[in-house]
Amino acid sequence: MDYSNFFINRTTPEIARDLLGRTLSYNTGSEILSGIIVEAEAYVGSKDRAAHSYGGHRSPANEGLYGPGGTLYIYAQRQYFFFDVATQEKDIGQGVLIRAIHPLSGINTMIKNRHGKSGVLLTNGPAKLMQAFGITSRKWDCHFIGESPFDIDLSSKKKIKHISAVARVGINQSDPIWAKKPLRFIVSGNPYVSDIKKKDIDPDFGFDKN
């Protein structure tokens, strides 16, 4: 797959939006764990106060974010891990955080990895989906996605009824501009979106059956 072309030549928000409906998978060596991306968050580089590259900050810890488009940026907060893909040309420092997936395959293994958590709790958050995949290290940080056990299917995508652009989660409210920017893209009505309310869940999970 031409990951490098997909993750450049457009704005990072456009890339984040286009990731919705595509299948993210992880090959454990014995099984494929996968799910449809239903929530993705754009981080737009040095001007973005919520980005790890804000102000041009660069260190060995966030070097993956500065890789050419398609480079994995896997970072840790406490014991939790997060899956980002760098966007744009090398040294730009922009990327997309995958926040939630709708499980497709390997669900029993994912439930075991989540210590019995199932249903929407399985993968309705960025740390949860990585735990469901069994990721316990930054081993694949800075690797190009095509040279890793991860895969994003760029050949097809699930049809979506409606995509919403909403404010990102957990952004410091002391910065009103960046806290409210609609840079988080969601499949409206999907139950695995991290902060969805039960009343907003669509019977078709936000997917178009036609």
UniProtKB/TrEMBL annotation:
Gene Ontology molecular function, alphabetical: alkylbase DNA N-glycosylase activity
Keyword set, alphabetical order: DNA damage, DNA repair, Glycosidase, Hydrolase
Enzyme class: hydrolase
EC code: 3.2.2.-
Stored InterPro entries: Formyl_transferase-like_C_sf, MPG, MPG_sf
Superkingdom of source: Bacteria
Signal peptide: none
Entry annotated with the keyword Hydrolase: yes
Iron listed as a keyword: no
SUPFAM superfamilies: FMT C-terminal domain-like
Pfam family, any one: Pur_DNA_glyco
PANTHER family according to UniProt: DNA-3-METHYLADENINE GLYCOSYLASE
Protein family per UniProt: Belongs to the DNA glycosylase MPG family.
Name of protein: Putative 3-methyladenine DNA glycosylase
Species this protein is from: Lactobacillus colini
